[in-house]
Amino acid sequence: RKMCGVPVDDDIIYTLLGLLIAEEYGPEFSTADVGASWLKYLPYACTAEHVALENLKNGIPASRAGAQGNPYCEWIGASIRADPWGYMAPGWPEQAASMAYRDAYLSHRRQGIYGEMFFAAAVSAAFAVDDPVEALRIGLTEIPAHCALHKAVRWALRVAPEIRDYRQAREAVEQHFKGMHPVHTINNACLTVWGITIGKTDFTRVIGETVAMGMDNDCTAATAGSIVGAVVGRRGVPATWYQRFDDTIHSYLLDHRSFSIRDVLRRFEKQAERVHNTLTWISREARM
User: How much is the pTM?
Assistant: First the structure.
């Protein structure tokens, strides 16, 4: 009842940061551009992002910032940064995954990178399909078929009919991925998948079931909500989920303490047009 605006949260911070990166450098931004933006806007970070940020501050180039002294490089941190690239390339999962790769490489490696690519592609695909599970299957086409994440998500989709609620979901990942850290990319990705397969296009059920599964549930539920929200649109999201936000997003980005939700939507729409126009032109020129 006392909420006034979207509270500060790192998941949303990186969505906003992705918007700033694209606005400043365009859809062809490099990993070095991502690093420059982190140094400019990001006052602090956690786990893999913290390591990468500190490495950048110590003069390590962006190409190596995610690999040096980083035991968290396959954790979920990059996956939560997937959303802006899907928003900027709606219906174009290949481009969403390409942007996600360049972003993820700053702080992650292997499954950490694939997680961001997979979910960026799934968000992108969700704008063009009626079934969020189909969006997940499309997202899988943008990561290597032999990688551990691809195999895990295929398993999650295969056994999904047996997973009917959050209790079964949590038990299944704990049994299948014994000893895996609770904020790893792989186990949390499976929970996101099941949140969607359980709730389908029922936005409230998707969010509720995914949060109840635990582990890194603010991240998994946010990703599940992003994919389902792209499928159902604003009309498919109950107003109780956003009516108290009062057109405000609170932020800890340097020089950007708050954003207007309406303005952010307009800016993402502008970047989506820019991505389509710029990359379509580049692709056409390359074929000539």
Answer: 0.95
